Amino acid sequence: MKPVRFGTTSMQQCATCGGSWLSTDVFTALCTDRERQTAVMSAFITAAPPPATALGQVRYRRCAACKQMMNRVNFGRVSGIVIDLCKGHGVWFDPGELQGILGFVANGGLERMRESEAEFKELSKKAWTAGAGIGSAGASPPTGFAGDTTVHVQLTSSDGGAVPLRRLLAFLLT
What we know:
By secondary structure, the protein is α+β, with helices and mostly antiparallel strands. Helix content is 36%, strand content 16%. The chain is built from 5 helices and 6 strands, in the order E-E-E-H-H-E-E-E-H-H-H.
């Protein structure tokens, strides 16, 4: 990989496959700074097209820093672009993925994702509090989920207290 710089954004690029490696800090700054996004997108527009890859080919990668296998994550949970992520070190982008992410961010994808998550959490909270007795005798379980299957869940923490809804949702959504 060779170091490259687009405006104020530094990254590593692989001359063989056309992929890019960005540290976590650089990627976060890129997602929040429109000037950086413009500089990187402009550079990719003028660059040669990436090499073609087989459709549907999945390749698990190791982190460039710690050499551990990275997690494959749908960026923003709704973008449809699966990136390779090492939470402590950085992100690997196969050819075209970084441009797709920047387009998703520029078109308000992160804001829409945050709004839909907030709406989902609020609806879940309302459903949970409306059926405060879920899991107890006589409670009416929510309907309309998983066909006719009803699931009753009663969660308690190690000290015997109730598990907060926020932790439950975080567990279910991650």
